[in-house]
Amino acid sequence: MRARAGIDAGATIAFSIPADHPALPGHFPGAPVVPGALLLAEGLQRLEAALGTSVDWRRMGCAKFLRPVAAGDTVTATLTRKGESQGRVDFSVAGESVAEVSFMPEPANGTARRE
């Protein structure tokens, strides 16, 4: 993993999901793609590691998957932060956007509002 990080500025990391990852064989046998949940989980966990602190990912405003990611692709994830717990993560492969997710703080009363 390569990382550039700054808590206020966000972070950029690069990672890949290996072809032998246990989630891939059943996800379109013969032409495996990285499941979106795995892409998000790996990217968000690695961004936190790069920042050296935890980020409140509990409430995602929007997640869009724009194209499939193949095993072994080098994925770049860039976190742009807006305050302590709000921001956006853009995922790309070879400069092409593959996914984007926005996150926001949990409401003070603990109930989520549907958008």
Summarize the structure.
With 115 residues, the protein is mainly beta. 14% of the residues lie in helices and 36% in strands.
Topology:
Elements: E1 2-6, E2 10-15, H1 36-51, E3 59-65, E4 75-81, E5 87-93, E6 96-104
Antiparallel strand pairs: 1-2, 2-4, 3-6, 4-5, 5-6
**E-strand count:** 6
Q: For the largest beta sheet, what order do the strands appear in spatially? A: 1-2-4-5-6-3
End-to-end Cα distance: 34 Å
Number of helices: 1
Give, in order, the helices and strands: EEHEEEE
Roughly what fraction of the amino acids lie in strands?
35-45%
Mean pLDDT across all amino acids: 82
SS-based structural class?
mainly beta
Q: Helicity range of the residues?
A: 10-25%
Radius of gyration: 15 Å
The main pleated sheet reads as: 6 strands, antiparallel
3D architecture notes:
- This protein has one helix and six strands; from the N terminus they run E-E-H-E-E-E-E.
- It has 115 residues and is mainly beta.
- The chain has a domain at 1-10 and 54-107.
- Strands 1-2-4-5-6-3 form a six-stranded antiparallel β-sheet, covered by helices on one side.
- A hairpin with a 2-residue loop joins strand 5 and strand 6 (96-104).
- The radius of gyration is 15 Å and the shape is elongated.
- The termini are far apart.
